[in-house]
Each structure stands twice: as C-alpha cells, then as structure tokens.
C-alpha cells in the first residue's frame, strides 16, 4: 500500500468491520462493573466491564437504561448484551449495550429477559391488544404434543364442559431443537383451518424443557394469531414468553381448557332461565286476560237490560191502567147514549099507539103490515096486533058494496 | 365434518328462543299468537337442552408432514 489512509477512513473501516461481524454484532459479555456513571441530563449510562485480563468500555442509551430495575454498582458481576463498535472521536472500542443483568441469573435467563424487553418495547404484550374470548367457541384449535397427558386432560375437560365445541388438534414437538419450528408450523395450520379459539399447551417440565415456548419465532407466531389464543404451558409457577403474548395465560393446560369453554351447567341454566321467562310471560298474559274478562263481566252487569226491563214493565203497567180507564170511560158514554136512544125509541114504539086503541094488521103468512085494501083479496089470513094480544082473522066480501 | 357445527345449531336455536322470549315479554300479543309462541319456545328450549345433554365432542387431527415430521413423539 503506497498511499496513506486518513484517520477517519481507518475508523470508519473498523466500525463497519466490527458492526458486520456475526459474533460481535450480537454479543453477550460477562464482567465486573467499573466506573458506572449515569449522565444526569441525557440519561445515558457510561460504564466499563472488566475482569482480571482486560477492560471494555460500554454505553447504554437512555431508552434501554430506563428498563433497568436497578442501576448496577461498581464491582457487580453482570451480563451485558449488545454489539461492539468503535467510538471514532476517541478511537475507543465500545460495547453498545441494550441489556444489563446480574450475572448470577445465568445466560438462559439473561437471554429471556433481553427478548422479553425487546418484544415488550415492540408492543407484543400490550394490554389493549388482548382480545376477549368467544363466549361459546365453535371450533377450538389445540396445539400441543400428540401423546402427552396435557392433550388427554384438555380433551376430557372440553368434552365434559362443552361437547358442542369442535376440536382440531394440531400436534407438534414441544421440546428439543426442532420444537420451535414445529410449534410455529402447527400454529399456522390451525390458523388456516378456521378456528375461533386456539390453545397452545404443554405439560410441566424443567425450565430447559419449556424453552421452545420462549423462542422469539414462536412468540411472534402467537402474536400473529387471527383469533384469541390461550396459553397453558408448564405449571402455575412457569411463565414463558408466549404467556406474555397470549390473549389469556392459563396456569396449566387443564386450566386453559376450562377457560376456553363455558360450563355445561351454565349453558343449561341459561336455557332454563329462558324457559322460566316463557312460563312467566304466558302466566302474566293469562292472568291479564282473566282480569280483562272479569272486568268486562262487571261492566256488563252494570249495564244489564234487566234494569231497563223493570223500568219498561212499570211503564207498560201505567199505560195499561190508562188504557183501562179510557176504555171504561168510552163504555160508560156508550151506555148513556144507548139508554137515550132506547127512551127515544120507546116514545116511537107502535105499542104506545096500540095502547091508545089502534091495531096493526099484518098478512098472516108473509107478516107484512097491510096499509091498503088493494091486493088483499077476500079470504086473506090476517094477524091483528092489539094492545094486549094478537087476533087471527080472514077477510070476507063487504055485502054493502056488493049490493050497490 | 358437517357444514354446520353443533355450536352453530345451538346458537341458532338459542337465538330463536331469545327472540321468542323477548317477543312474549313485550306482552302486546293476542292470546292465540302468544300461546303459539309459547309452544314454539318450549320446543326450542327442549331442543337446546337436548343438544347440551347429548352432544358428543367431535375431534379431528390436523396432521401434516410439515407440522409433524417423522420424529418420535415423546415429549
């Protein structure tokens, strides 16, 4: 090389070399804290990590430093995660740390905490993202080991509580190196099968046994669930990464199954309640109808025609009496008139003339009163009415006339 | 797998039952219609109860090579 490089060209080259290095770009470092300082104004933390053989300068920006539950003190043994780079102005190698944990917790836990912090910052655990479970799931996707007691327990509980719900089992490996990929694939399969609730479960085991459930890809696959997802991993005391991401964390697989569906008796009670409401409303309706009927009956009674009838009957009686009186009066008047006529008749009666010595001469067979001699030949039978009786006679020829 | 799941059947019947109960509780029905609804409601309630009591859970396994490679299943 015949040409000198500028200082900044060297520092830039070194910086790029360091930052693109696969190991140095994602690094856990264990060491003793020296000279820890938190810059009051900016909140950034500057410190060094050292051991008997060396020292690395380190910085932690405020955004990461705020997540520290407590600031480390000089002499603490810690685990730091971050990447190595060059601080050009001073030509210093520096660890840009994002996580700082007491070394005593072990690397596994340190990794877990680092991932948890990162996913939390990304919003994967956000409370407002948690979805309510379906009241009565139609199809439940179970992602778990096919042979495990966890699956049997869950199937038993689901069948006992709510056999209406259909269950799709997507079996997967739940431990070992290939478990994370298997779990992710099984989750993807149930998502595609169209379920409305997913349970991701695994029976109890050691912290290492459960490790697949702390995997970042698995956590992201849980986050990607299109429907509410319940986790039931390990025992009550175990909390894995998927538990933070899930819509609901159940302490065990059995508990997850119980939370997933309503109790048979609860559903039954709802049906029974509806049945009671049916009965009550029909009872009420019948009572109301009964009351309406009684009401109508008393109204009818109040307006009964019997009362009018009584009134009318009285009126008829009155009219009858009037009529009687009118008839009586008419009869009496006729009686009087009749008597007058009879009296007048009596004065005109031939009897009175007979009393005075006159006689009435009748044709004895025809009864005709004879007022003339014409048409009365001799030998005609006569009836002569006198004052006190009747004489029978026959006409004879007058001698004097014959002699003239 | 049938197109309509037991839950869907149940929810349909239960939904109808709710509708019948609500209609009856409004209480402005002619007696004949109310009694018809009542009869319908009791039948729906019985059908719901029967489903709850006699349903058998359907379980299906989604097995695919991708999901579940040829490994031993001890876990």
UniProtKB/TrEMBL annotation, chain A:
Domain called OB-fold nucleic acid binding: residue spans: 5-99
EC number: 3.1.11.6
Limits of the Exonuclease VII large subunit C-terminal domain: 124-337
Catalyzed reaction equations: Exonucleolytic cleavage in either 5'- to 3'- or 3'- to 5'-direction to yield nucleoside 5'-phosphates
Subcellular location: Cytoplasm
NCBIfam families, sorted: xseA
Function: Bidirectionally degrades single-stranded DNA into large acid-insoluble oligonucleotides, which are then degraded further into small acid-soluble oligonucleotides.
Protein name as catalogued: Exodeoxyribonuclease 7 large subunit
Originating species: Candidatus Chloroploca mongolica
From TrEMBL, chain B:
Subcellular location: Cytoplasm
Keyword annotations from UniProtKB, A to Z: Cytoplasm, Exonuclease, Hydrolase, Nuclease
Enzyme kind, highest EC tier: hydrolase
Keyword Protein transport on entry: no
Quaternary structure (record): Heterooligomer composed of large and small subunits.
Function description: Bidirectionally degrades single-stranded DNA into large acid-insoluble oligonucleotides, which are then degraded further into small acid-soluble oligonucleotides.
The reaction(s) this protein catalyses: Exonucleolytic cleavage in either 5'- to 3'- or 3'- to 5'-direction to yield nucleoside 5'-phosphates
Annotated organism of origin: Candidatus Chloroploca mongolica
Similarity field: Belongs to the XseB family.
Keyword Phosphoprotein: no
Protein name: Exodeoxyribonuclease 7 small subunit
Enzyme Commission (EC) number: 3.1.11.6
InterPro entries: Exonuc_VII_S, Exonuc_VII_ssu_sf
A molecular function GO annotation: exodeoxyribonuclease VII activity
Location (main, coarse): cytoplasm
Signal peptide: none
